[in-house]
Amino acid sequence: MTHYDLAIIGSGSGNTLISPAWDDRKVVLVEGGTFGGTCLNVGCIPTKMYVYPAQQASAPAEAFRLGVDLTLDGVRWRDIRDRIFTRIDAISSGGRDYRADELENVTLIEEYVRLTGEKSFETPSGDVITADQLVIAAGSRAVLPEIPGIALPQVHTSDTVMRLDELPRRLLIVGGGYVSAEFAHVFGAFGTDVTIAVRSGGMLRHLDGTVSEAFTRQAAHQWDLRLDTDVTQIVANDDGSVTARLNGPAGPTEIEVDVVLMAVGRTPNTDRIGAADAGLDLHDDGRLAVDEYQRVLRHGEPVEGLWALGDVSSAHQLKHVANHEANVVAHNLLHPDALRASDHRFVPAAVFSHPQAASVGMTEEEALAHAEASGTLIVTAVQHYGSTAYGWAMEDTQGFAKLIAEQSTGRILGAHILGHEASMIIQPVIQAMSFGLDAHTMARGQYWIHPALTEVVENALLSLRTG
Ligand SMILES: Cc1cc2nc3c(=O)[nH]c(=O)nc-3n(C[C@H](O)[C@H](O)[C@H](O)COP(=O)(O)OP(=O)(O)OC[C@H]3O[C@@H](n4cnc5c(N)ncnc54)[C@H](O)[C@@H]3O)c2cc1C
Ligand SMILES: NC(=O)c1ccc[n+]([C@@H]2O[C@H](COP(=O)([O-])OP(=O)(O)OC[C@H]3O[C@@H](n4cnc5c(N)ncnc54)[C@H](O)[C@@H]3O)[C@@H](O)[C@H]2O)c1
User: Fold this and answer.
1) What is the pLDDT of residue 278?
2) Atom 51, ligand 1: which residue's CA is nearest?
3) Is 350 near ligand 2, meaning CB less than 6 Å away?
4) What is the average pLDDT across 131-142?
5) If you average pLDDT over residues 419-441, what whole number do you get?
6) Which residues form the Pyridine nucleotide-disulphide oxidoreductase dimerisation domain (predicted)?
7) Buried b / exposed e along 193-205 (16+ C-beta atoms within 10 A)
8) How far out from the chain centre does Cα 99 lie?
9) How confident is the model at residue 322 (pLDDT cuts 50, 70, 90)?
């Protein structure tokens, strides 16, 4: 048995906790998978490194209506793949070597461990580790539904699809959320025939209804979108392709593809670390229960010195949330008498698809429920990109920003943007909400660069009938 001052399970955002403040204390970092976790190796970073060239590959279609004739001569999939992973793999292995070899006070264990108590765990090779403080930052993993044929080598998740040797000619994506929307854009722009099977009636259904409906419409123009459709079986064919059996509104049908991407959500890794056996509290979806200081709960009470952060405990499976919670835990580990709380009031998110979608705060549906419960009124404004000068320059006919505010105070409750660089132009609204600026002050209290695309947000603010 070895005892440490601090033990961390998971090298994603968990890795950032090891600051110089721990230099004279014993720390163990445990990583059973690839060093650096999901975002670096199989998540945010490589996906966006694919999204950017996908945008370039989409340029001919976009430019044509502006009077610019471009042709796409080809997409060198292996070159793109190797450029991305040469860079990422080096960062991962550099980070691993730094933790393994260069810090005398830090030990790196490269095995999947299981809790044996509140602040103890064991490795498959039989070592038992105890710690004064333990941080569980074990993340989440892609869900694989129990469909016959799910284990075929042609069936991938986001973990493996980015490393394919060849760009598939035909791809079936199962699911209608983030991963589906982003990979449909990437593979579709590169020339793959993309079919998407969504078991519900729309894509991105976690977003505001107006955005989800508009995205679904645009998705149906770009990809073969099958709504209200289940995949019931996947069967291997002799030529290396697979046949997926679908059940949709028109009854059973079949589709032949080269690769299937399962994109049906992610589940927290609490089962794999044995959190329930250790007596820790779990939410219904399997997340660890934590309080506002990121302390893990047992029988509803925080366990002293036991912390969790990121996907393993968060309702938001987002890297900026995992990083924020890691900052909070980093402080709280060292300042037990002056704990900081996490701030989950205005968590933004963006889907890097075509078009992009970005959101923060309440959807209109949630705002209406809030208004009813609080006896207030809400106002909404929808501003189209095409109504601003930059939108004219782009000849944009689809993009829009939808803002929702409290009528009496002008307090902004939510923002939902669909279109070019939505993830960037939403940032001033996130700032206004976080710092409590009302819609009018925000619109009139600063210059807005003319004729930048941010004028969409300015005009939406001015259109809100508040006060
Ligand atoms: C395809 C994809 C794209 C994404 N894109 C974005 C994006 O654009 N923006 C965004 O904000 N978020 C994005 N995300 C989500 C983001 O990647 C995650 O929210 C974030 O990486 C979670 O960080 P974490 O530190 O909680 O967990 P992770 O980074 O997953 O780290 C957990 C680590 O713990 C290890 N581990 C688990 N169990 C054990 C055990 N028992 N013993 C030892 N080690 C263990 C795992 O191997 C893993 O490396 C994306 C996710 C995916 C899958
Ligand atoms: N840009 C980003 O920030 C980004 C990008 C990718 C992933 N992520 C994170 O990763 C998480 C996982 O992404 P995701 O797209 O896998 O999940 P998701 O929750 O976004 O979407 C899952 C989809 O699968 C469907 N589904 C669920 N179970 C199903 C089943 N058994 N059969 C068929 N369909 C089923 C759901 O209805 C939904 O359409 C996201 O929730 C997000 O937090 C973020």
Assistant:
1) 97
2) 43
3) yes
4) 98
5) 98
6) 347-460
7) ebbbbbbeebbbb
8) 26
9) very high
Residue-wise pLDDT for 358-386, tens only, equals 999 999 999 999 999 999 999 999 999 99
Atom of ligand 1 nearest to the CA of 138: 34
Q: Say if residue 448's pLDDT is above 90.
A: yes
**Spacing, Cα 138 to ligand 1 middle (Å):** 8
Q: In CATH, what number does 155-264 get?
A: 3.50.50.60
CATH 3.30.390.30 residue spans of the chain:
355-463
Beta-carbon contacts of 322 under 8 Å, excluding residues fewer than 6 positions away, are 12, 13, 39, 137, 309, 310, 311, 314
pLDDT at residue 178, as a whole number:
98
CATH number of this structure's domain 2-140+267-334: 3.50.50.60
Ligand 1 site, CB within 6 A: 9-14, 30-33, 37-39, 42-44, 47-48, 112-113, 137-139, 158, 179, 269, 272-273, 310-312, 317-320, 322
- Report CA-CA distances (Å) from 322 to 10, 12, 17, 205, 451: 12, 9, 12, 23, 36
Ligand 2, atom 5: closest residue by C-alpha: 178
CA distances from 217 to 22, 50, 119, 224 (A): 52, 23, 50, 11
**Which secondary-structure segment (H or E) carries 253?**
strand 251-257
Q: How confident is the model at residue 421 (pLDDT cuts 50, 70, 90)?
A: very high
**In the chain, which segments carry CATH 3.50.50.60?**
2-140+267-334, 155-264
Does residue 467 carry a pLDDT above 90? no
Cβ within 8 Å of residue 27, ≥6 positions away = 4, 5, 6, 7, 8, 18, 105, 106, 107
Span 93-131, pLDDT tens digits: 999 999 999 999 999 999 999 999 999 999 998 999 999
Confidence grade of residue 72 (pLDDT, cut at 50, 70, 90): very high
Please indicate whether residue 450 is annotated as part of the active site.
yes
Task: Give me 196's structure tokens.
Answer: 């998407």
Residue the block writes with tokens 């950032």: 16
**206, 283, 344, 450: which one is catalytic?**
450
The mean pLDDT value for 312-319 works out to 97
Distance from Cα 322 to the centre of ligand 2, integer Å? 17
Q: Which pLDDT band, with edges at 50, 70 and 90, does 315 fall under?
A: very high
Proximal ligand: closest to the CA of 202: 2
Q: What does the alpha-carbon distance between residue 44 and residue 12 come to, in Å, rounded to a whole number? A: 12
